[in-house]
């Protein structure tokens, strides 16, 4: 079979087979790099494509304009704004779904046009049928929610809207481009079980929310060339008399925003992670090829003597490492497409996309293979220089013993402290310091990556702990449909089983500091809060003040504002005043971007005294169910968030994302460490086989002989640990901020345990590599090693 | 000495350093089998300087390797004094090499990362009854070059370091496989003289493999090998000193 190949190619194939273990270890490093690239790049492209198609086909609105109550004829005015293509008014109201045995579930009720498909934000029906326009008791449920509660078309659900409970028949299940991510208003993370969307007839909702002939949300689709900011400004003017809450564009739509953030994150990883692997692979290929050229200088000399040119010989060795790199590249591409298919299935479910096919574009694959070839080329660069400096005569004479006289001999100190084998180890490292440093750095990077991911989890747990045990100590948070008189609080206090009640008043607002702005809100709180607090760096309560606002740190960063500065608050509710409030303190906050203000002072500024939006409550655990039932029955309650549930869904979100990444990064650390340490060991073994055999001959035991070889690896591994710790330290801050979103900030402080765990992975990987090479030492053939002269 | 004789029934000749009976070594099997040794019987008295002569592939190196504990025999028995080498396991052979045997090879086999004295210390550190490394180097005439690395020394100097390393443990036996093979004749004579001194002063039984028949003149006993067997053994009554040898 080999006869089809030229003699050089046969040599190539046999050489590859001879170092198959090493070749595979290097190919694995290349493969992981290419896999991550193909997977992430492919998934970003697929998701982008899927998102684009979904948005287009189901006509996702460009601008959303919530309003208190606007008569339908206003839609005509809106349609006339320049750049507006399509307008649709709809009713968007809060509802509560009562599932037997569960706390009240928040829902969003949306109207569907009577006899036509929605012009914007159309539904993708996944089961059942559209509602019958003539019936006001039919709903279409968001599929995610229906799945989470095992609801199917034909089932009945009870929902409370505007205080009145009614029973509905589920006509169908649907997905929608505006609920790719489903996050309940006021909640932070998606949770299918605790938030529902139901679509029903316009008539039914008009009646429920007393919006006959009116709408409370306008959706706008842009015409070609429509300018969003101008349209928003005009919309706000038109809707102001009707209580407009301020129009916003797609970028601020929560589902879309989370989707974009996720895609950005993946795209960034696709650019940053693979180069690390490929640099490591290039380094490994380089030491392999350098070693090989050195060992084969006689053969190279012979080839030169026969008339092969430098270029032909270089090409031969390039082919050698190119094959290894491309092998890794192909494995990576296949693995990437394979894992990508699975990931697409998970993504499709997680993001509620009606269709998502993982497609690795040909150019993704080509780039993937290209970068592996690049790694090979970089690996060859240094080696090329070696070849071109050889002449036939020099190449064919045996090399002089490697010269150690220029490395530190260490003199008396070395002699006193180290025995001969240790000196051999030390000088072996010092003779090729660059190789040792590169190996240390490569292992250090692997460990750093792993430590940073590990730390992300620790940081996240810290976040949960701080937020759900220190900042928020309520058992549940009750929110009202609209601000109510503070008398409602007494009603809660009187409830059996409720042991403590702390009211709050929230308003949505645009927060501004000069050019910096943020769509958020102001949290009005009691001045000495106990159930939901603002805390400082040391996790001590910050008292809420009447003379100024306390800002969460992430928000202060977004707004580029510091204590002493004035914050402009454009309130989006009620009389819509614009307030100027001094910032008096910053609060440590990992969750949410919040402005804290004293509740009465806020109400006073709003000229709405004695209003509350909800309350944090503490519940006697024994009375949990009774309290929940009573809360469900309260008409004013829009929803109840249980602290424990919120924490659990947060935990789940993290376990799926960063949690999985942690294990991937641990695998990465192991692959890189094994790749580097195993290859270094193999190379050291090949270079020293002769010396090692000599040691065995003069009476060194296997163990003592292995020490000379493995000692070097041990030193490299040990030196890599502090480097890894330092890289982990730096990377932690980066990774934490990369994984932080508008919604939560993951603390980037390094936890020593993360470093420890990552170090453990590295040490284990190094030990496994050492064990593999130890077997070679045991097999060392003393007689034949002595016969050959290298 | 950790190795114990496995077969006590064999008679033991008290003055013998090495004794073999029917030593056979076969490499490979079937058609590809190569018979390196075909039943060699040999008896070498203590303290002798023995030269092994013969063409390449005649089996002398194989025998040396088996007697030196580097290789195992396919059949037959080999004894070092009263210890059966062919019955020892890998650990016992290591101890045997470590405490009793000094090796000198054609290509020196020094550690390039250790200086001359450190190369010698490599052995004195692990041996039971070593001499000072400086002393060993003095015996081979290298007192001036203690802290040179192999790369800084000539071939003859490197080989003399190798000899110093071999003798520093005060070996019972010294095995030299083509010790002068890579050297010119002047340097080669220096090396041979060093070996002769060691044999004389330490009383170590010394086996030297060489292609240069003239070397036989300095030996007590010359063994000729041919085709895996001993052709003849010559007892040399008229030993000359190394300086008188030329080839």
Q: What does this protein look like?
A:
- The complex is a heterodimer of chains A (790) and B (247).
- Among the domains of chain A are: 93-204, no CATH class; 432-471 and 649-790, no CATH class; 472-648, no CATH class.
- In chain A, 54% of the residues lie in helices and 19% in strands.
- Chain A has a six-stranded mixed beta barrel. In chain A, strands 13-14-18-15-17-16 form a six-stranded mixed barrel. In chain A, strands 2-10-1-11 form a four-stranded antiparallel sheet.
- In chain A, a hairpin with a 2-residue loop joins strand 13 and strand 14.
- In chain A, helix 14 runs antiparallel to helix 21 (752-779) and helix 19 runs parallel beside helix 21.
- The longest helix of chain A has 55 residues, at 643-697.
- The radius of gyration of chain A is 34 Å and the shape is elongated.
- The model of chain B is unreliable at 1-13 (pLDDT under 50).
- In chain B, 27% of the residues lie in helices and 26% in strands.
- Chain B has helices at 60-67, 90-100, 116-124, 133-139, 155-167, 185-202, and strands at residues 16-27, 34-45, 49-53, 75-80, 83-84, 101-105, 173-177, 205-209, 221-226, 229-235.
- The longest helix of chain B has 18 residues, at 185-202.
- Chain B is globular and about 50 Å long.
- The chains are: A alpha+beta (790), B alpha/beta (247).
- At the A-B interface, helix 13, helix 19 and helix 22 of A face helix 2, strand 6, helix 3 and helix 5 of B.
